Amino acid sequence: MLWRGMRKRCPRCGGRRLFDGWYHMKPRCPTCGVKFERESGFFLGAYLINYGITALCLGAVMVALIVRLATDAQGSIIPFLVAGGSVAVIVPLVSYPFGKTVWAAIDLVMRPLDAAEEAEALLARQDAGRRDSG
User: Fold this and answer.
1) Structural domain of residue 37, as residue ranges?
2) Whether 134 contacts 126, CB under 8 Å
3) Residue 42 exposed, middle or buried by CB count within 10 Å (0-12, 13-18, 19+)
4) pTM value?
């Protein structure tokens, strides 16, 4: 499930096309019908994943800066400030959809779908099939 989430796929079935654009996730998987936002505030975990990825990347920039200053105390920190600023802006924008699908996978691993959610997903998939064929 986590591997599917890391590839921006449905953690349940591996289906694609979960996003309308880069940032807007569909409410349900178009393939299996599973509802992604299972409760209010569900995607708070996705923001934590996104923050963690960004913090790790910024940490790598900081380690590079420390190594540079340890070997050359007179070296300029401007390239590291630019790199850190770029990382702080670009990494969250790029990793946002992956954070959402990875969080959906983590949630499904920790809380598998109950019978009512399985039935709801099946009905949503059948309804979508009727709309597509009709």
Assistant:
1) 2-133
2) no
3) middle
4) 0.82
